[in-house]
Amino acid sequence: MKGHAKYNTKAAPALSYDVKLLFPVLFLVGIGVVMIYSASSTLALKAFGNEYYFLKRQAIFAMIGLLILVFYKHMPYRHFRALSYPIILFAAALLAATLFSGFGYAVGGARRWLRVAGFSIQPSELARFAIVIFMAYSLNKKREKIKDFYIGFLPHVLLLGVFTVLLFIQPDFGSIVIFAVLSWIMLFVAGVRILHLTAAFVVLLPVLYFFLISAEYRMKRMLSFLNPWQYPTEEGYQVTHSLMAFGTGGLWGTGIGKGYQKLFYLPEPHTDFIFSVIGEELGLVGVLFILGLYVMIIWRGIHIARNARDFFGSLIALGLTASIGLQVCINMGVSLGLLPTKGLTLPFLSYGGTSLLVNMASIGILMNIKAARPV
Questions:
Q1: Residues 275, 35: contact at Cβ < 8 Å?
Q2: Maximum CA pair distance of the chain?
Q3: How far apart are CA 147 and CA 236, in angstroms?
Q4: Is a pLDDT exceeding 90 seen at residue 102?
């Protein structure tokens, strides 16, 4: 990160929004609302008798998300220093409640959701946000002794271990991967010794191997990832239909609303596989446009991290940007058959209130960090 010697501590003008960050986010949210309707209308009509069911809900989430973005844009990020412990404890409590309370419920065999007063919450989305805030606070606080194994490395790995156990029980392996990679990135940037980070990875390899071979369905999923067409009606079903969608789309796509794979062939077309629907209906041109918007967001997030007024702000900006970037890479990688199937949403595009609201809050925080700019 750049030096933090001279910075303007005065508040930025009330309407000073980072348009280079805001515009691609608004484009994605708008495209997401349209594509969610296209992908879900038939499913919604069959399940709820209302083809606009998911469209209406996502539109409401989008409006609330904009309010949250504005709120966090104007809330000084330094307040997260005092809030870091309450946030991380709250996130851990929600994950535990998902598993051990009557409010948790399972979808597709995974117990990842809480239902409270008619609203559904996915605690792993909040937990990812909490990990970034807490690790930014802790790593910044311990910066002078960051290379000490018992100060800079071990406490943060133990924290990650607690969340990993809670996610493993659900199970939510996609979130475990994101949490681990995100933590590694933040530890690396903060200055934790490479030896410690590398040794931890080497120690985990046999654990991961045992985990992979300990269940038959995991082995089948890995084999189907290597050759999905060999298992087109089993573990490879999702990937093969996703690839069919991209193949059908060609250069220009079939047109919005004219996709075929979303019609009870492609599982979860409005959530995990919305990128496949985009590939079929908007074609390669639409896919490249979406990729361009994500590149703008990630590039802008890195720029904000590099130019933050202090190390704490740099770490928050880096963590939030990496969190969004990892979700994008994993979701798109799964849709294109480049990664094993994981249940992760595509930021700003997929249906899901918790994901959208957390990511909109992240953008607001990035803008607040940008507002405290250098002199």
A1: no
A2: 61
A3: 44
A4: no
pLDDT at 12 over 50: no
Question: Cα torsion for 354, 358, 363, 369, to the nearest 10°?
Answer: 170
Gap between the Cα atoms of 317 and 231, Å rounded = 41
CB 367 within 8 A of CB 350: no
Kindly report, residue by residue over 160-199, the tens digit of the pLDDT.
999 999 988 888 888 888 999 999 999 999 999 999 999 8
Q: Read off the pLDDT of residues 257-293 as tens digits, 9 standing for 90 and up.
A: 898 888 878 888 999 899 999 999 999 999 999 999 9
Distance (Å, rounded) from C-alpha 63 to C-alpha 168? 33
Query: Would you state the pLDDT for residue 355?
Result: 93
- pTM here? 0.91
What the block records as the tokens of 201 is: 């990875």
Give the chain as a 3 state SS string.
CCCCCCECCCCCCCCCCCHHHHHHHHHHHHHHHHHHHHHHHHHHHHHHCCCCHHHHHHHHHHHHHHHHHHHHHHCCHHHHHHHHHHHHHHHHHHHHHHHHCCCEEEECCEEEEEEECCEEECHHHHHHHHHHHHHHHHHHHCHHHCCCHHHHHHHHHHHHHHHHHHHHHCCCHHHHHHHHHHHHHHHHHHCCCHHHHHHHHHHHHHHHHHHHHCCHHHHHHHHHHHCHHHCCCCCCHHHHHHHHHHHHHCCCCCCCCCCCCCCCCCCCCCCCCHHHHHHHHHHHHHHHHHHHHHHHHHHHHHHHHHCCCCHHHHHHHHHHHHHHHHHHHHHHHHHCCCCCCCCCCCCCCCCCHHHHHHHHHHHHHHHHHHHCCEC
Residue 1 pLDDT > 90? no
Are residues 4 and 226 in contact, defined by beta-carbon separation less than 8 angstroms?
no
Query: What confidence tier does 341 reach under pLDDT thresholds 50, 70, 90?
Result: confident
